Amino acid sequence: MxxxxxxxxxxxxxxxxxxxxxxxxxxxxxxxxKKVLSQLSSxxxxxxxxxxLTASCSLALETALEMCGLSNGDEVLLPxxxxxxxxxxVLKAGGVPVFCxxxxxxxxxxxxxxxxxxxSRTRAIIPVHYAGISCDMxxxxxxxxxxxxxxxxxAAQAIDAFYKEASLGTLGDFGCVSFHYTKNxxxxxxxxxxxxxxxxxxxxxxxxxxGTNRDAFFNGECNRYTWVCPGSSTAVSELCAxxxxxxxxxxxxxxxxxxxxxxxxxxxxxxxxxxGYARLMAIPDYASPNGHIFYVRFASQALRERMRKLLMEHGxxxxxxxxxxxxxxxxxxxxxxxxxxxxxLACYDTLLRLPxxxxxxxxxxxxISEIMIKGIRxxx
Length: 380
Prior knowledge:
single chain, 15 helices, about 40% helix
């Protein structure tokens, strides 16, 4: 058996799109970028078209933090069980990342813990929709509203996933989506920034093209373009946009297939939960996931490692996930101790991600599940 953890989905249109791009112009914001923005207007049809492509989700996060206008020492809340991009974005903007623990059911930020860490210096909160499972956004937006915090949704894993009827990334002041090669829709490297406020959107448009009013110039809004604010070069390349346009044409099929495999895992692995060996990925009633990740949290680190090695012996690539930020070398430099966030640490020790992608079959999910159930009962 050989079941990879990742398997890139191909719609069959990628090569044609790339060749067309190569035979045309490679200028920033060309025909394929415009095509992708048109395609995304149907994906994010529940809000105004205030979004822009970026070269990565990390750059989308950095842009959102720049729009917040942080002063030196301003604090931003984010979960410790997390990739470093958001914390780096806070530091680059002159702020202080303040880590929070996670909810053991969803692995998303613990709102109870976050509420206790709000101070007079807190300016924003960055919830992560882990595995494409939504945070409880009504509660989070209420907490943020009462404290006057900007909400930046880290929806890197969450394209075509929803909170109730709303697309993830559209509920906060900003939303950041990833098109990294590991994501459901991929162009190798790419991202999307969504802005709720039009003035933030206009500032971000300038920031992404070296701090100039280039977009206004090409839209006929001024005679010359010039330097108007601090900025960077964050726009996606036209080649990546061409690949992304082909991928987006298969979004519905990709999401449907992944969700089916997610439900297969929940069904076939139910005995592990019933027998007390593990907790399966929880899906709250308010969440509609996209099948980006399927994970299991085992009763102990030792049991997790036995299962990981057993699966590898059968040719099944299963992976752990984040090292919590607070136990990283950078976390130590920021003054955190290993014991600060017990649930994040427990998740680090016990979570195992299983293969899930469009090339995975229901029969393979059944076989993976049977190997795990037989193995865990033997070891248990």
